[in-house]
Design a protein that fits this description.
The protein contains 10 helices and 12 strands. It has about 375 residues and is α/β, with parallel strands linked by helices. One of its GO terms (molecular function) is phosphorelay sensor kinase activity.
């Protein structure tokens, strides 16, 4: 059975309602003013609140305003009052489900509880289904992005492994010469210096391969729940996006640079933020691939502005046409050729940023194409 909180400075009313609802099987709590009511809500989160309006210390209006500040807590709320100047419209404005005038009939309150509890339950089920649909859309977009990147990433990893393999062979040959003492001392010294340079390059290619695999694992993670947000380096997420698109940049002759003042920690779902950055960079790549410019570039700038951390993605394109700017964040709107885009990327990226208490916007003042992802500084 649901739990009920009764808030009234009249002890007899609290006792009467408490006795009745306990006999009906409800778990029941009481408070004599709004201050006690707020604490009861924090401790027990009752499903139903029945509150008087006029009370000492903290009245019913202030009490309900405080409760409504918690968007995740949504109980059925009834007002009971002896004052004739309070109307049902006043109650609705305060976010209350129903108003009962004293002296009230208990059967009316019971009927109201059943009616509004059912409505809340149906609304809750709709919200759950909506979240499930959004979660599925996010996962589908995530899988599509992985599929689009996989060919380029596979080719990129193969290139790094090929370099490591051939360089290892050359190293072995140099070692064999030294072991067999085939060269004089000066030649041997030169060979050792060459070996050091080759080993440094092998290490660099191995490290790059590790970073690509690590970034791919981050992207492929299942979308996490609220309690799995983690503190992570923002720069590491941006670098992961750059690493995953390294082959795209090479093929399209695009120079991608990143500037930032200091490394910054953010609390987020890393796989979702990575998805946003990849969408923005992939869109820039797609747009620049059609340009014939000799110098094509993407610039990523991280900056700290007051209480916000901003990541700006600017490319050398001429910007978004004015007639489509207001539509680019809409679901399923795309300017790409058939088969190249679904129109989900930017709208989903915008929702992901909003879920992180941030924003994603197009900078219309820039002469180039410039998107800004903004996070609250932690």
């Amino acid at each position: 059975m649901p739990s009920i909180l009764i808030v009234d400075d009249e002890e007899m009313i609290c006792t009467y309602l408490e006795m009745h609802f306990r006999s009906e099987g409800y778990e029941t709590f009481t408070a004599k003013n709004g201050i006690e009511g707020i604490q009861m809500c924090k401790d027990h989160q009752p499903n139903i609140i029945i509150s008087d309006i006029k009370m000492p210390q903290c009245d019913g209006v202030k009490f309900i305003q405080v409760i409504k500040e918690n968007s995740e807590y949504n109980p059925v709320i009834f007002y009971i009052t002896a004052y004739s100047d309070v109307t049902i419209d006043n109650a609705y404005e305060l976010g209350v489900d129903a108003l009962f005038k004293k002296p009230f009939q208990i059967k009316d309150i019971v009927s109201g509880i059943k009616k509004f509890s059912k409505i809340k339950q149906e609304h809750s089920q709709i919200e759950i289904q909506k979240k499930l649909n959004e979660h599925q859309l996010s996962e589908n977009a995530q899988l599509k992005l992985i599929a689009e990147l996989s060919t380029g990433i596979s080719h990129n990893i193969n290139n790094h492994i090929s370099y490591i393999t051939t360089s290892s062979y050359v190293l072995r040959k140099y070692l064999e010469k030294i072991i067999n003492k085939e060269n004089n001392e000066d030649t041997e010294k030169n060979d050792l210096l060459k070996m050091i340079k080759i080993s440094e390059k092998i290490h660099a290619h191995a490290l790059m391969t590790y970073r690509i695999v690590k970034s791919m694992k981050m992207l492929a993670r299942k979308n996490a729940s609220d309690d799995e947000k983690e503190n992570i380096s923002l720069i590491s997420i941006i670098q992961s996006a750059i690493d995953l698109l390294e082959e795209e940049f090479k093929i399209n002759l695009i120079k991608c640079t990143l500037t930032y003042p200091v490394d910054i920690q953010i609390k987020c779902y890393p796989e979702q933020v990575l998805q946003v950055f990849l969408n923005l960079l992939q869109n820039a790549c797609d747009a620049l691939s059609e340009l014939k410019d000799d110098e094509k570039w993407i610039q990523i700038d991280v900056s700290l502005n007051n209480e916000k951390t901003e990541v700006a993605f600017t490319d050398c394109g001429l910007g978004i046409p004015e007639n489509v700017r207001s539509h680019i964040m809409e679901a399923f709107f795309t300017t790409k050729n058939r088969g190249k885009g679904t129109g989900v990327g930017l709208s989903l990226s915008k929702r992901i940023m909003e879920a992180h208490d941030g924003t994603l916007s197009l900078d219309e003042s820039s002469k180039n194409t410039r998107f800004v992802a903004s996070f609250k500084s932690t």
